[in-house]
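ingest -> validate -> predict -> emit
validate: passed (alphabet ok, no gaps, 106 aa)
predict: started
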Amino acid sequence: MLTIEVGGIPIAVTNVDEAQGREVFESAEFKRDLMIMNSDGTPLWDAKPPLTVRSAFRHEVALIETADEEPDMGDEAGADFVFVTFLMPIDHDHEEVSAIQPQLQG
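emit:
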């Protein structure tokens, strides 16, 4: 599992292997989403601080494992499903700007 940091601050973790996680986090679509999405009225990324992808820490892994267990995920959730869990509150409707390409969603 991987975490993406903005200027050294962890903002999201994903449940997939390193290659697929980097593909998601380093994509132009995900970067665009980070500039559109807000937390407490502030964009998650303004394209200035560096983005860093690293291995997720234990407490971050626990957060995504909890998200994987959500009861409303239905039959579509599984080992092939790409989850991105944000580590801060998101106040923009991120469903409309999802960067995860349909072919990577399962």
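Helices lie at 18-25, 28-36, 58-68.
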